[in-house]
Amino acid sequence: MFIPGTVFNVISRSVSTSTVCNQIIKLTRLRVVDNSEIGKAAMMEGKPPRCIHVYNKTGVGYIGDRVLVAIKGEKKKGILVGLKQRQNPKVPRFDSNNIVLIDDSGTPLGTRIHVPIPHILRTIMRRNTHSKGADYTKLLAIATKFV
Amino acid sequence: MTMVSRLWCRKARQNLAFAKVLGKEPKTFSTLVQLKTDEATDNNNDSQAQTNDELIKSPSLGNYRLVYPEFLPDPNPLYRNSIREKLERMDMLNRRSVLSIPEFYVGSILAVTYSDPHAVGKINKFVGICILREGCGLRSSFLLRNVVNGEGVEVRYDLYDPAIQNIDCLRLEKRLDDELLYLRDAPLEYSTFPFDMEIEAKISESVPVNDIKIPLNPLPWSQRWERLNLKGVKEIVVNERRQKKAAALAKPWEKYDLMKTYRETIPEEEQNEIFSDVYTKLNELEIQKNILKRKYMLQRQNSSKTRTS
Q1: Residue A116: inside a domain, yes or no?
Q2: Domain for residue A118, yes or no?
Q3: Are the beta carbons of A89 and B124 separated by less than 8 Å?
Q4: Terminal-residue alpha carbon distance, chain B
Q5: Residue A13 falls within a domain, yes or no?
Q6: Does A93 sit within 8 Å of B155, measured CB to CB?
Q7: What's the pLDDT tens digit per position in B260-296?
Q8: Residue B230's closest CA among B171, B172, B183?
Q9: Domain residues of chain B, as ranges?
Q10: Which InterPro entries does this UniProt record tie to the protein (chain A) (predicted)?
Q11: CATH of B70-298 given 1.25.40.10, 1.10.10.10, 2.30.30.790, 3.40.50.800
């Protein structure tokens, strides 16, 4: 004798049900929006990556911040390129928290980003890039659309 | 003292400006606009006290609270300050005399062109459906939503932002609700609008209401929509527990709460006072806007004719 509620509970056990957090902190689920192998595989599997560290002093990630994510049992770095949170006037707010995976030198792992990227990210990425450090502006080159 | 002198100067200037318009006497006005100006001239000749009385009676002031909601101050008495409100109104009129801000409502489709220091050509354009209008005075803002490359994007703009170069109302219509935030939890096709949309040629007396009913995605949602008594949404399916909770939290008696209404709205007498203050200037701007609109429509008709022939 099955009660529908019980059936639903049993099914939902196999699904990760932590909701998308409106603030990017540790253990927030994110969405990979580039076409890198590992990112695509993780999103297809229904196990989106989790933020395990935000590289700033506050621990709360905002647009353009660098995060460390746990994706398919690996640690990768990513850049936040679109947030669900309320933004300043004229800065777009997106329906999901998007990241683009990068490696340590700032080169993106994928070759294309399939969602729009906010224009303000150009300025932020240029500001974060230092001549001898990582070059984050490479990410802008693989974007398809800016809003 | 300076305040009083400043206001005096402004009054005088307003009268002068009005006289200028009368001198030109453009002939392309529609009958309705012509009537309005006639009324205004009559009022102007009479004494100040009488002007206010007649303006209150005139039908055109009735819909000003809907067309220009940002001219009404925040009803919360903690935030009221008559001098600041007056100064803000003057600033708003000054801005409106430079940039033509069209009449729009929640549910209308807008195109905003603004200078963006981060964009390539320093100019950016966004098209979307207005899902929220909030704030009053110079702080009033609106929220546009669209779907770009399969991703929902929302941009908030301040209505009196000096960086805005142009605002076009591509489709003027209303929806059944006061805010359309539920579009975030609806299928994407209901908030998708092409970026190359043209202004729809329709000059009608009243604003059409689009009574489309939108289905929501299955749970989870960003808000508990079943509690908000929405009219523009197809029947909301939630489990029994949430239904019970919504029924328990419903406040159907609130619409009879006169005190609450009084606290949350600006009384009619005060509205009339405010709008009779800005009526002349707004009317003048409206006339200019109508002329420009007609010109644009004519140009477009001509160009389409030449294209077909």
Answers
A1: yes
A2: yes
A3: no
A4: 66
A5: no
A6: yes
A7: 999 999 998 999 999 988 988 888 898 888 888 888 8
A8: B183
A9: 15-58, 70-298
A10: Ribosomal_uL14 (IPR000218), Ribosomal_uL14_sf (IPR036853)
A11: 2.30.30.790
Would you list the DSSP string of B169-197? EEE--B-SSS--GGGGGS-GGGG---TTP
CATH number of A75's domain: 2.40.150.20
What is chain B's percent helix, strand, coil content, to nearest 5? 50, 15, 35
Q: Is the pLDDT of residue B9 over 60?
A: no
Q: Is residue B47 pLDDT above 70, yes or no?
A: no
What's the pLDDT tens digit per position in B101-139? 999 999 999 999 999 999 999 999 999 999 999 999 999
How many beta-carbon pairs under 8 angstroms link A with B? 63
Residue with tokens 């902190």: A25
A95 lies within 8 A of chain B by CB: yes
Q: Do A89 and B126 touch (CB under 8 A)?
A: no
Instruction: Give the domain extent around A49.
Output: 20-141
Quickly count: other Cβ atoms within 10 Å of residue B9's Cβ.
10
| Mean of pLDDT over chain B | 82
* Mean pLDDT value across residues A87-109: 94
The enclosing H or E element of A21 equals: none
Residue A8 maps to a domain? no
pTM attached to this predicted model: 0.79
